[in-house]
Amino acid sequence: MIAEVVLNSSAIELGKVYDYKIPEEYNGTVTLGQRVTVPFGVNNGKKEAFIIGLKDNTEVKRLKFIDSFEDDILDEKQIHIAKFIAEKYYCNLGAAMNLFCIDKMKRTPKTVEIKEEKLEEDKKANAGQQQAIKYLKSVIELNKFEEILLHGVTGSGKTEVYLQIAKFVLGLNKSVIVLVPEISLTPQTVKRFKDRLGNSVAVLHSRLSKGEKYKEWCRIKNGEANVVIGARSALFAPISDLGMVIIDEEHDMSYKSGQTPYYHARDVAEEICKINNAVLLLGSATPDITTYFRARNGEIKTIRLTKRANSQSTLPVVKIVDMTEELVNNNKTIISNELYQAIKNNLLNKEQTILFLNRRGYSSFINCRDCGFVAKCRHCNIALTYHSSENKLVCHYCGAKYNMLPVCPICKKNKIKSFGTGTEKVEEFIGKLFPDASILRMDLDTTSKKGSHEEILNKFKKENVDILIGTQMIAKGHDFPNVTLVGVIAADMSLNVNDFRAAERTFNLITQVSGRAGRAEKKGKVIIQTYESDNYSIVASKNHDYEGFYNQEIIIREKLFYPPFSDIIMINISGENEKNVINTATQVQSMLYEELKCCQDITVLPATPSPINKINNKFRWRIVIKCITTDEINNIINNLIKSEKFVKIKNAELTIDVNPAL
Q: pTM of the entire structure?
């Protein structure tokens, strides 16, 4: 018997189907979707692979035997999803199939006796929540695929809707997957689900150890847990009888994978729900522009929650402070007079403050004021960030650390100075302004240790801390009743980036972090500091006006032929030899021009260096294709990357990213 296998490899040139002999003792026991190990290449190196076909004959003359057979077997639905991912995102089928597998532990997890537990009762839903829950129950009972957008303002009680609906689905003997952005997957969020749904909840995220993850995986596979809450990879958990997938904060870019396969969890969840006759619920205060476009066109049903769940809580009052006027008034600090006074008042009233800046570190870059030298990473073409706590220069792309420069290495003068602002500098400055205030900082640097996330949030929630300073980690998924002031230090930081979604991301971030203020009885206030006070995304976030923002943004997207009016395919070419990378990019560009010259409404932009053209010692170029939908060129691209002329390109690495997070 002969097995057709695909390798678990991200390399496009290894995406073919290979034939291997099945040892006689395994004939009749092998099945489609099974994970195996095979000898590959002239050196017969061990490679993971998956069986996708079985046959009696082959044209290959000298076949190798499969080395070993694993007990991981993908079922029919999982294979279908893997094929969907491979075709939609132009990746190898083996790499897509591997998403459903997990590293095994040598020891079987210990069986733990489940104690009887007292579960928290459902909270009384307000009128809006009751209406949403009633409608969702009626849809779920139809036992067919439906996609629904739950569009609710910050603090409107979307999580309570999720909890009550998840409980309803469990009552139908079905399972639920709840996706949450990694940074929102806080102990607070998990606790709410476990308090309500008990031991039926399993949690999957990147901070679990291999042993912890394997233990949860086994609980899911054995049917002990039928609610899975986690980041995007939770979609591939071995869950049975799926009734619903919930994607909280569906607009969040962390749902887009940053490595091969470059899938988007929302698209994959849609396909999973379709083949399981399950309901897909998308929740957000600031829906993705493409999602809302589909909702407006009737492709997705919409439920609205227009008021906060707490009847005594209203959306905060938002004030924009133009920092150019602060300069005119001779205030050259990072804190406006208005924000200073507001923090001072909060301290007097013993109320808490959140200060948001989406840049960690002390300063953005280091340069010489005499000759203009900028300190850059030796492995990446990017300015180094100064971290004062370590007195080190750090690359935020490859993680390399360098000693702080005492003098300029070019002109040898002592004119080295740091520029820009990060969370460390804000913490230092606020500490000097308010020496008696207790301050915490929450960013990637302060949460690197296990349990540090929970420790910081618990300290802040217990109201022993006056001010919390942080990056987007603090922008969502938190409920602090005593927070009455939110300060956005530099609202335009995310506007001035090379990304057509810049305005959308800015609006989302400001809206989300603003939503942390005044979530209980006390009134909330938000102060947005910016140099672009008339920018439509900032003005709309001040007015809590998603509809107004969408109406302006969608006009710009249509004019510039950006999603949702097009799909973008980015072909990335990288390698350690810059000349080879450029030559490969030129070759691929020529192939694309030739293959797509007869296609209308398709634009192939010339090959160019990536915005950051060197990371981890690899030079990077890219080619961007714009088309109305990838459906019209799927076959062309898939045939091209499998063709001999494409596979022969071995001087550089190629990856393909559909609708990338630029």
A: 0.90
Architecture of the structural domain at 2-100 = 3-Layer(aba) Sandwich (3.40)
- What token pair was written down for 1? 């018997």
User: Above 90 in pLDDT, residue 558?
Assistant: yes
Instruction: Round to whole Å and give the CA distance between 511 and 534.
Output: 16
CATH of 317-360+422-557, one of 3.30.56.10, 3.40.50.300, 1.10.260.40, 3.30.470.20: 3.40.50.300
State pLDDT tens for residues 299-327: 999 999 998 887 777 888 999 999 999 99
Give residue-wise pLDDT tens across range 624-639.
999 998 887 888 888 8
Q: CATH 3.40.1440.60 in the chain, residues?
A: 2-100
Q: Are 303 and 132 in contact (CB under 8 A)?
A: yes
pLDDT at site 372: 86
pLDDT at 118 over 80: no
Alpha helices in 208-336 (DSSP H): 210-221, 265-276, 289-296, 323-328
**CA distance to 66, 104, 184, per residue, from 70 (Å):** 11, 10, 35
CATH level 2 (architecture), domain 127-305: 3-Layer(aba) Sandwich (3.40)
Kindly report the backbone phi and psi dihedral angles of residue 153, in degrees, each rounded to the nearest multiple of 5, phi listed first. Answer: -60, 160
Pick the CATH number of 567-658 from 3.40.50.300, 3.30.70.600, 3.10.290.10, 3.90.550.10: 3.30.70.600
Neighbours of 259 (CB within 10 A): 9
Q: Does an H or E element contain 611, and which?
A: strand 608-615
Q: Dump pLDDT digits (tens) for 448-457.
A: 787 787 888 8
CA dist 425 and 471 (Å) reads 13
Helix (H, G, I), strand (E, B) or coil at 17: coil
Give the per-residue pLDDT at 113: 47
Per-residue three-class SS string for 327-353 = HHCCCCCCCCHHHHHHHHHHHHCCCEE
Per-residue H/E/C for 386-439? EECCCCEEECCCCCCEEECCCCCCCCCCCCEEEECCCHHHHHHHHHHHCCCCCE
Per-residue model confidence (pLDDT) at position 110: 53
